[in-house]
Amino acid sequence: MKHSRGWSWILWVIVVILIASSCAQPAAPAKEAAPAKEAAPAAKAAPEEVELVVWAEANNVEHWRADGPVKAAEKVTDYKLKVTGVNDDAGWGDYKKKFTLAADAGEAPDIILSGHEDVPVWANAGYIVQFDECRNKYPEFNDVIDSLWSSVTWQGKLWGVPQDTEARPMFFNKTKLKEMGWTDEQIAELPERIKTGDFTLDDMIATAKEAIAKGVVEPGYGYWHRPRKGGDFLQYYAAYGGRLYDPKQDKLVVTKDALEKWYAFQRRVVEEGITPENFIGTEWSIWHDTVSHGKVLFWNGGIWQWADWAANYVQDLGGQDYLFSFVGYALQPSGIKGKPGVTLSHPLVYMITSEKASGKHNQDAACALLAKTTTPEINTLHAVGSTHLGILKSQAKYPDYVSDRFLSDTLYMLDYNFYQPNHVMYGPYFDIVWEFMVEAENGTRSPAEAAEAAVQQLQSELGEYLIVE
């Protein structure tokens, strides 16, 4: 028994040692906690749906003015847009009146397209909002030709973005010149001669009189200006050295000597028998039909009319191919020998209306839409379809634009252009100089009398806003 208890004791000691040994072993590393699952990203909110309305004055070949923003809406990602484009061909006077009435009632469209000269008037009335913040928000606007931003600038701020621009050439009938004995080389050199001031308004009148004398054109068909009121006539004021605006003083300018010479030119073309008596007021349809069918030697028009003639007046004769066969184009001749020809450029611009005018707070969405409208793809649709010059730097290399012969031929004219001034009193200014120009052309006042009366009325109505020189 004693022996048995000894072995039991030994066994117990061994068990104790083994237990102690196992307790002395380092603990097995704890399992790492499973990483917490990342929270699922919150579902992106669907873009806000916004309804926008765009108004534009446009004929059937200018429909991209309103249809362009409709198409551009597909590219806007910040908003879900429903865009309605309205092209209105009622005429500029009725169109602008409709807008101002709508804006006064708080029912204006979200975006309005109009001439750049409406910027100061509509900004001053609170109808449109400043564009600087929108301009800086989207890179598309960096592509706009830098000089065009001045057309939407008033009081140091931007108020819109250009949609198109153009030139107003003097068109000439190459076939008629050839009948007069001009060579192909002489005809081809005419635009350059006008550009350098070698061929002036006096030369144009003399050539038109010669064409009538030779029976090449009928009396009264030597030169046709536009038949209705429009800024084109100011090209002749500029051709004689007239100034419209002093940017340093922010004042309108009338140059008396140039005004009288402009009025004298308007009367002279009638007295010399190259323009019909009482021509102002002629129906546009008659004017377009006559010049596009080659019955006039020289005429003053706009590049946008090229597409109109091709589509609506001479399509059955071959459209643009027919026009290229006999129509040439150049700058408006100067009235001063050696002075380069000129052209008036009149950018049309998109403006975003205010909450006061539209009754809505959609200005940010309208900005996003105009950014996607200001692209070579969208703008070239309008430029080529309506023969307007593009407003983007990139269009100079954009294939669809470059391949258009007429646009490429007339692009250089923008180097010789000027704008009507953005000034709140420019409307009354132009109304006055136009009214007395008509009197001078129709012979109810002499050019000198008409110019003197115009200056007096300008001084009376514009006061401190006018500089007379």
Can you characterise this structure?
The protein has 469 residues and is α/β, with parallel strands linked by helices. The chain folds into 2 domains: 49-166 and 346-418, 3-Layer(aba) Sandwich (D-Maltodextrin-Binding Protein, domain 2), CATH 3.40.190; 170-344 and 425-468, Periplasmic binding protein-like II (D-Maltodextrin-Binding Protein, domain 2, 3-Layer(aba) Sandwich). It is built from 20 helices and 16 strands. It has helices at 2-24, 64-72, 92-104, 119-124, 132-137, 174-179, 184-196, 201-213, 234-239, 256-271, 284-292, 304-312, 320-326, 355-358, 363-373, 376-386, 399-402, 405-410, 426-442, 447-462, and strands at 48-57, 79-88, 111-115, 153-154, 157-158, 161-164, 170-173, 223-224, 245-246, 251-254, 298-300, 327-330, 343-344, 348-352, 417-418, 466-468. Strands 2-1-3-14-6 form a 5-stranded mixed sheet, sandwiched between helices. Strands 8-11-7-12 form a 4-stranded mixed sheet. The protein has a 3-stranded mixed sheet with strand order 9-10-16. A hairpin with a 2-residue loop joins strand 4 and strand 5. Helix 2 (64-72) packs across helix 15 (363-373), helix 2 runs antiparallel to helix 16 and helix 19 runs antiparallel to helix 20. It is globular and about 75 Å long.
- Measured as a percent range, the helix fraction is 40-55%
Q: What's the CATH C level of the largest domain? A: Alpha Beta
- What would the principal axes of the Cα set say about the shape? globular
Instruction: Work out the count of structural domains.
Output: 2
Number of helices: 20
Give me the Rg, rounded: 36 Å
